[in-house]
């Protein structure tokens, strides 16, 4: 007797697989926030790293709540009013179909990607309250209006505008918003000279920037390939491929566009500076991804390469134009990476489409790009313009010079160059000397300027000779160590002041010669630039707590 085959409802199977797929790619897109955090933190000064990371955390936290209560519903209303969409203003609050929230989550991770792009453009000078308030409005109003015009079946969709995964709707919109906000805020202090020439302000970690780029590229497969959201469809009672009928083309164009973008940026960088700038290569890789995001489902393979290459190649040119002609301080180059690359990719779609070129499609793409740009500039300019008018857009000069980590958050991302290697009061902290009075009974101030990476060894050596009390300052200076030329995003700058650690140690009962020798041995690497040690007499010393003076105070 043969067992009857198990009956499976194809609708149930298709729905289950599709839900799992959308959830997985949503989680992957969420992980892109780790990439944005690393990329942006690497491109800002060390004194602003914590501020940048905080903005990334709050972008998601504030934005996703605003999108849940207002943004998602507003998008549907805009689509219904301007086109053929169906209004569902409060659908997110309806728990009748819990799985409907899977679609909401998929839309939310796209919305938060657009929001977090802005933070890189305004880094180093925007007040946290202004940025968070703008993020709330972007997630609740500005971005939903754009999606209402397009994915919400609004008038741009009816006109024929096509954007597969948000090359213009998400990235282009975010890049334009960032450029507008940076313009309203004005440049960072010391970014431009009195004659209008630009100063290079390098970020603190190229390593972070490149690792963040690769994390974003990984998440981008969820962004693009994940937009082919329907794995299975049911046709005539049987399973059939849904959007997965073209998923291979999407994956291929995403990969080719990514690679071509890096090559394009490297080629232009080499032509302009005779060097392949690492940051341009990283930014170009992302620009290439943006360049194919609007059209990955329709591009021929050579179209994927061409769109990615052109998006990467335009990056150094557009960045230089923004910096030198427009005088806008776009810290993380969000406009050439996301804005102009998104515009270019959307407009190039008809030229490389598998469906062939049509004038109507080109017109629709140009109109769509224009409408999204105008709306984003107007809305973003109004919000930041209002903040500037009431004096709440930008931190004070003193706070900007001190760094936003301490001014806005009261933290130091890199405190004291690292943890102390010696516990004060431990076994090595005190030495007994029964000989003659050290330093002829006088107080000596030993000042050493050494390499920062030798600080731990110096502290340990000082504790072993009985001089654990020190003052450490982060300084920069110039001595026998030669100057060198650096490059940041294609622009050269001279590094003639080198980062050093300045150690000051006042001693009375410990011989200054022993302190000097301990520092010298611990700081010596045998290379120019190891530093200098100075010994100065101290006329007097006063202990604040007790009032003790002279050697007793030390």
Throw out a few tags for this protein.
alpha+beta; two-stranded antiparallel ribbon; 8 strands; elongated
Folded structure, characterized:
The chain contains 16 helices and eight strands. It is α+β, with helices and mostly antiparallel strands. The strands form three sheets. It has a four-stranded antiparallel sheet with strand order 4-7-3-8, covered by helices on one side. A two-stranded antiparallel sheet has the order 1-2. Helix 3 runs parallel beside helix 6, helix 6 crosses helix 9 and helix 9 packs across helix 10.
Give a summary of the structure in a few sentences.
With 554 residues, this protein is α+β, with helices and mostly antiparallel strands. It has helices spanning 10-43, 49-82, 100-121, 128-149, 155-159, 167-185, 206-224, 247-273, 278-293, 301-325, 334-352, 359-389, 397-402, 404-409, 455-464, 512-523; strands at residues 232-235, 238-241, 443-450, 471-477, 484-488, 491-495, 498-507, 531-538.
SSE inventory with pairings:
Layout: H1 10-43, H2 49-82, H3 100-121, H4 128-149, H5 155-159, H6 167-185, H7 206-224, E1 232-235, E2 238-241, H8 247-273, H9 278-293, H10 301-325, H11 334-352, H12 359-389, H13 397-402, H14 404-409, E3 443-450, H15 455-464, E4 471-477, E5 484-488, E6 491-495, E7 498-507, H16 512-523, E8 531-538
Antiparallel strand pairs: 1-2, 3-7, 3-8, 4-7, 5-6
Helix pairs in contact: 1-2, 1-3, 1-7, 2-3, 2-4, 3-4, 3-6, 4-12, 6-9, 6-11, 6-12, 7-8, 7-9, 8-9, 8-10, 9-10, 9-11, 10-11, 11-12, 15-16
